[in-house]
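Quick one:
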Amino acid sequence: MKTKSIIDFVGNTPLVEVQNILKKEGVTLLLKLEGNNPGGSVKDRAAYYMISEAIKRKNIKKGDTLVEATSGNTGIALALMAKVLGVNMVLTMPENSTIERVKTMRAYGAKVILTPADEGIEGAIDYALKLKYKKGYFRLNQFDNFDNPKAHFNTTGPEIWRDTEGEVTHFVSAMGTTGTITGVSDYLKSQNENITIIGAQPTEGAKIPGIRKWSEEYMPAIFKAKKIDQIFEVSEEEAKEMTVRLAKEEGVFAGMSSGGSVATALKVAESIDKGVIVAIICDRGDRYLSSDIYE
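Output:
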């Protein structure tokens, strides 16, 4: 009997066409449902690559302790993958993260340290650095780790190309660590340089989990502006409204970053006469039930 591990079910997520939120002849909007990954988000891909490649390079070995700053999904994915791959995981994250995320990471066996909310993800990054130097933990550093976009070059991009039979014309993704959009851009443009890559960023002052603008000091090294053709700003209200609509009108239960991604995709759809748009649905909505999104 041929058996499989949980890792074998990372990727190959569904690509589904919207039925209600867009009805425009000549324009197709497809949603890539990354919540179908074992850990419930697109971050499973990067988490597996970052840990497994570090083991292959002998940067770490089984039994070692890793540390990483996270706002949520990456932490859950790392907690899962660390346990499967035989390493220990310490995660630092802002204390205003939803309780579902914290409990899920701890359920997978990770140690979670909450940092002051007013310091944001930058504060969590700074604390992870302290632990690296004080305790000797290995820091994966998803923001500067090129195994992050590599995961999407090797898996997400090829899946989109395959499942659209090469007909994709536009790719839309929320921009957080920027690993997804960078890796997918590299792959899709290697197949057809005319594919347009669009990133979603928050408007000034908007707080959308999973989407952010970086200060120059904390800009991820993996981010390459030239790999993105257009950037659309999305407001907190737009992201929340679309998140609710996705659940009620499409049966797609997701978080606000996905709402921001799809709100941006609809703006793209309005601006073209013909095309196949693929938007990333980053995760599942069940890890946001304690927030006010669905109230």
